[in-house]
Amino acid sequence: MSYKMVKTTNINKPLFLAVSILAIFINGFLTLLNLSEFYIVGILKQTDGYPFGSEGSLPYYYNTAELYSIVNLIWGVIILSILIFTIIITIKGQRKKGFIIFGATLLLTLVYFFHGQIGT
C-alpha cells in the first residue's frame, strides 16, 4: 500500500481572473509602449523631439536612435511573450500558473524600470 502526498492550491476564480486581467493589462501596455517606440524611431525614422546623443542624465540607450529602437524592440518582444503566455494561462484557467506569471510580470516590470535608470 503506497500513500502519495498531494498538495493542492485552492485559489478562487474571481481572484485568479482579477490577477490575470491585471497582468494582461500591464504586459499589454508595456508591449504597446515598446513596440510603438520601435516602430516610430526604428522604422519610420521620426526622431524629432528625442534627445539622442546629447549629454545629461539620460539612459545609455539614448546614445543613438538605432540603439534606442533595438532596446525597445527587445523589451517589446520579451514582454509580448509574457503577455501571450498570460493569455493562454488565463484561457486554460490554470490558477497556480496565473499567480506565478503575475509575480513574473511584477518582477519584469521592476527590472524594466531599473533598466531605464542605467547610465543616468
Describe the structure.
There is one protein chain. The protein has 120 residues and is mainly alpha-helical. Helix content is 67%, strand content 0%. The protein has 3 helices and no strands. Helix 1 packs parallel to helix 3 (95-115) and helix 2 runs antiparallel to helix 3 (95-115). The longest helix has 31 residues, at 13-43. The mean pLDDT is 91.
What descriptors fit this protein?
single chain; 120 residues; mainly alpha; 3 helices; 67% helix; 0% strand; elongated
> Over all CA atoms, what is the radius of gyration?
19 Å
> Which H/E pattern describes the elements?
HHH
Q: So how many helices?
A: 3
Q: What can be said about the biggest beta sheet?
A: none
Total strands: 0
Shape, principal axes of CA atoms: elongated
Strand content: under 5%
